[in-house]
Known about the structure:
By secondary structure, the chain is of the alpha/beta class. It is built from ten helices and eight strands. 1,3-dihydroxyacetonephosphate binds at residues 6, 81, 153, 158-159, 165, 197-200, 218-222.
Amino acid sequence: MIIVGNLKMNQTLEEASIYESKLTNSGIIICPSFPYLPIYKQNGYELCAQNVSEYNDGPYTGDVSASQLKSLKVKYVLIGHSERRHVYKEAQESLNNKVLKSLKQGMQVVYCIGETYEQKQNNQTFQTIENQILSLFNIIDNNDINKIIIGYEPVWAISDGINPGATPTNQEIDEVNKYITELVKEKYNQNIKILYGGSVNLNNIEQLVKLNNNAGFLIGGASKNVEDLLKIQEICKQ
Ligand code: 13P
């Protein structure tokens, strides 16, 4: 199973060094803040960036380009994360540009999608997810679809940094995973990998590990504690 630890905007330099020493090449894909990528790189961890610029290198103060990430041996990039879509109001067009730049550099994309609580209440879950997938998949080369991993993260299930979000039932996630799998097969004739994310932790992992069509997990809050992250991975291996 693919386990991605999304550390979000956490850790100091010192904390990153301690965390890194405990991660011990476990095969977990680690997603630290940009300044700490080289710390994790030195011991050969699988790296995922939390974001990437939609532009090529040049006068874009504060941005980090796909080629810069590539030079750090970053293998994956998170694009379309709920916090980027909703806090930073990133538009679909710029997400698409980010994906294109990342693919051009040979990186794989974890493309995050998910419905808000309001969309769920209005029975718009499948429509939302379909729109998010088609808006990207219609503009990329069909041969590149196998370089995309879907991160299904219902917005209402993601923790706010203090409190965990609600956990969907396995049935709810299974239905979405089935929908995505069939959509991508039908429209693009490709098999797609899906990760689940949203308050995955030691209390719910034994249940979530039974999901269908699930290739692994995107773990936010619970990944801040390296011991918990390693325990979650152990449970996924059983
Ligand atoms: P939490 O696990 O903190 O809910 O975050 C999930 C997430 O956003 C992973 O990308």
